[in-house]
């Protein structure tokens, strides 16, 4: 770790070994460990949980707005359905869309950011101008209007829509990073060896920015969760089935929000979403701690 | 010889002219203004594409809707739609685009779908100030308090204060603002019944007369207090953490070490040397975040039923009132762009290194 901090050149190890090593390093600090555990449990809850917990979505009018009990640990909703069951089933779509959106926006940002920085000139000016425009546009307002006109169906489309407004900030940062990397000796060496643009970007530069990209990937996920759940809570994404956002949408549209017995039913999806966001941020902070020791508290 | 000199002179003036143009472009203030104009143009173009060009766009849909039952002809339907949108549907698409641009620049955003006598501009102007007031107040408060706390946290790095402030800051800033709003309603409004959430709806109370008097201002603050609280809470963490990091970086700068060596008072170093330099880059961030907050305000306003742009936008969405939707999108973008421009100008005033074309 200290060797990394001193800016030692990376010898790229086998990908798996490096991922395992990285996880080990992150887990050494409490924030990183918390983030790892949090993100891990949510992924487990959303993707493995449904395999073990049978789906209960039958309406039971006799058991509406039940407070937590042994049978319903988090109570029941306005139709008497178990809340915990909905929490287990309601994360998969949100996590998938967030991951896809972060993937798309990171891919665009990395490709065009590194292209703009390495090619420079007119390409740089144009890419930067487009990014600046996208950065200024109020994202959620655009998303609401676009979603209202073309109801985005299916989570691939939703992820693309979210990503289309998210890449600009990351692109600017990637570009700035590459501009500073460009001056390093080993890049000059690669250029004088005439290794080609593709090789220089993908083999020499990006491996040195892997941590940086990873941190921003995580932040892109938090942004995608924010915008996505926002759209769902407003009822602008036609979704069916269990989903934390849909739970909140229904709670609001059914007036459950103002009904004092519905406390646990509303609190549960709020906690699930907030804790997932917190875990992501903790994980990103853990990564930052590892790669940017200057920010570390108390050392 | 005599024929050569003018040619040389012409060449040098041409080079000089080009250099002057180049330095104009390099001039940060002019560049900021140009960038703002370009952004507004782009936003206008995007709304045109959205409502006119894409398949299934509102204009085609509306015409189809009107002609479906056969009571009016295609031409009549087109005419009817043309009175609502600031677009001349009889011309080819490029010309439609130009007339649309010209109309929008004059402030003509069309009419509401629901009543063709109400202009979109008047609808938006009635609600925009409330949103800007709530968002602006919340954001500026969080900025001022967050900068102070972040500076202190950096000075007492590693102390209990630092740990508490940084941890709380990062926790609260990762919770989405609309969830904070729902939590406030859920806990303080419904469970504990401390906050009279139903009385606080709207931008001001129904009986009160708008005017510049204490009663009205107090009432406006009462109604805006919940949105302001949410914007304050959800942004303060970001300012604390950014300011803390910026201050830590600044503390290591040579001029701070030199100021210490010169024996300057600590309070002077903290404010004039460290604080000012660390806070500078955050001013631009403040401008950028205004865009996010105005967008995010939609949900917060809906939860508190605060009569701002966001709530109006959602009403337009529910009524499928496309001209109003598109108008709000444009006007919010313009206000964000203007805020960004203002920040650029303030920044060049605060930082003497910027603002002088070199």
Tags for this model:
heterodimer; A: 299 residues; mainly alpha; 14 helices; 69% helix; 0% strand; elongated; B: 358 residues; flat
Strand content of chain A: under 5%
Residue windows where pLDDT falls under 50 for at least 5 positions of chain B: none
Describe the main β-sheet of chain A briefly.
none
Query: Fraction of residues of chain A in helices?
Result: 55-70%
Radius of gyration from the alpha-carbon trace of chain B, in angstroms: 26 Å
**Please, what is the oligomeric state?**
heterodimer
Alpha-beta classification of chain B: mainly alpha
Largest interface: A-B, 49 and 59 residues
Give a quick account of the main beta sheet of chain B: strands, pairing sense, barrel closure: none
Q: On the 0-100 scale, what is the average pLDDT of chain B?
A: 78
Description:
The complex is a heterodimer of chains A (about 300) and B (about 350). Helices cover about 70% and strands about 0% of the residues of chain A. Chain A contains 14 helices and no strands. Chain A is an all-alpha fold. Chain B is mainly alpha-helical and about 350 residues long. Chain B has helices at about 5-25, 30-55, 60-70, 75-85, 95-105, 120-155, 160-175, 175-190, 215-250, 255-260, 265-305, 310-320, 320-350. In chain B, helix 2 packs across helix 5 and helix 6 (about 120-155) packs antiparallel against helix 7 (about 160-175). Chain B is flat.
Layout of secondary structure:
The complex is a heterodimer of chains A (299) and B (358).
Chain A: H1 2-5, H2 15-27, H3 30-52, H4 83-89, H5 92-119, H6 121-136, H7 139-149, H8 155-163, H9 167-182, H10 185-192, H11 197-205, H12 210-233, H13 244-253, H14 263-291
Chain B: H1 4-26, H2 28-53, H3 58-68, H4 74-84, H5 93-105, H6 120-155, H7 160-173, H8 177-191, H9 214-251, H10 254-261, H11 266-304, H12 309-318, H13 322-350
Helix pairs in contact in B: 2-5, 2-13, 3-4, 6-7, 6-9, 6-11, 6-13, 7-9, 8-9, 8-11, 9-11, 10-11, 11-12, 11-13, 12-13
């Amino acid at each position: 770790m200290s060797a990394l901090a001193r800016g030692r050149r990376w010898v790229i190890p086998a990908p798996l070994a490096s991922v395992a090593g990285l996880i080990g390093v992150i887990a050494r600090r409490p924030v990183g460990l918390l983030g790892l555990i949090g993100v891990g449990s949510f992924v487990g809850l959303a993707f493995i949980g449904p395999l073990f917990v049978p789906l209960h979505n039958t309406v039971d009018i006799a058991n509406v707005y039940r407070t937590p009990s042994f049978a319903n640990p988090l109570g029941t909703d306005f139709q008497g359905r178990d809340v915990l069951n909905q929490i287990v089933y309601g994360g998969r779509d949100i996590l998938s869309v967030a991951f896809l959106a972060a993937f798309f926006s990171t891919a665009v940002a990395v490709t065009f950011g590194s292209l703009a920085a390495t090619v420079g000139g007119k390409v740089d000016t144009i890419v930067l101008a487009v990014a600046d425009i996208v950065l200024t546009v109020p994202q959620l307002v655009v998303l609401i209007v676009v979603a209202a006109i073309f109801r985005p169906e299916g989570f691939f489309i939703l992820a693309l829509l979210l990503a289309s407004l998210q890449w600009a900030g990351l692109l600017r940062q990637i570009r700035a990073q590459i501009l500073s990397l460009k001056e390093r000796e080993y890049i000059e060496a690669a250029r004088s060896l005439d290794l080609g643009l593709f090789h220089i970007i993908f083999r020499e530069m990006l491996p040195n920015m892997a941590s940086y990209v990873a941190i921003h990937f995580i932040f892109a996920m938090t942004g995608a969760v924010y915008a996505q759940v926002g759209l769902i809570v407003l009822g602008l994404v036609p979704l069916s089935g269990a989903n934390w956002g849909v739970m909140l949408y229904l709670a609001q549209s059914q007036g459950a929000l103002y009904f004092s017995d519905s406390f646990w039913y509303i609190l549960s999806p709020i906690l699930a979403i907030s804790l997932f966001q917190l875990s992501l941020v903790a994980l990103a902070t853990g990564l930052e701690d590892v790669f940017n020791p200057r920010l570390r508290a108390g050392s | 010889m005599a024929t050569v000199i003018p040619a040389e002179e012409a060449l040098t003036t041409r080079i000089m002219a080009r250099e002057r143009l180049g330095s104009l472009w390099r001039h940060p203030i002019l560049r900021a203004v140009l960038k703002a104009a370009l952004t507004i143009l782009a936003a206008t173009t995007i709304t045109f594409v959205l409502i006119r060009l894409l398949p299934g766009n509102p204009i085609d849909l509306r015409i189809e809707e009107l002609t479906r039952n056969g009571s009016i002809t295609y031409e009549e339907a087109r005419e009817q739609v043309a009175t609502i949108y600031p677009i001349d549907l009889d011309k080819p698409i490029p010309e439609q685009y130009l007339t649309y641009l010209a109309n929008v620049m004059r402030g003509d955003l069309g009419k509401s779908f629901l009543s063709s006598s109400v202009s979109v501009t008047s609808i938006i102007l009635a609600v925009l100030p409330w949103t800007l007031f709530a968002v602006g107040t919340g954001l500026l408060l969080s900025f001022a308090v967050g900068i102070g706390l972040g500076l202190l946290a950096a000075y007492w790095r590693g102390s209990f204060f630092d740990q508490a402030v940084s941890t709380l800051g990062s926790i609260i800033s990762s919770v989405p603002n609309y969830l904070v709003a729902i939590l406030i309603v859920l806990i303080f409004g419904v469970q504990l019944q401390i906050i009279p959430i139903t009385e606080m709806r709207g931008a001001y109370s129904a009986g009160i007369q708008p005017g510049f008097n204490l009663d009205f201002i107090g009432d406006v603050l009462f109604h805006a207090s919940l949105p302001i609280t949410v914007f304050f809470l959800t942004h303060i963490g970001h300012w604390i953490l950014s300011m803390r990091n910026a201050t830590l970086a600044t503390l290591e700068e040579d001029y701070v070490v030199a100021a210490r060596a010169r024996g300057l008072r600590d309070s002077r170093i903290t404010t004039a040397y460290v604080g000012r330099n660390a806070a500078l880059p955050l001013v631009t961030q403040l401008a950028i975040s205004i865009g996010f907050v105005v967008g995010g305000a939609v949900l917060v306003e809906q939860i508190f039923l605060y009569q701002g742009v966001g709530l109006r936008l959602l009403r337009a969405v529910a009524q499928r009132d496309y001209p109003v939707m598109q108008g709000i999108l444009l006007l919010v973008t313009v206000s964000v762009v203007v805020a960004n421009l203002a920040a650029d100008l303030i920044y060049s005033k605060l930082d003497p290194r910027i603002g002088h074309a070199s």
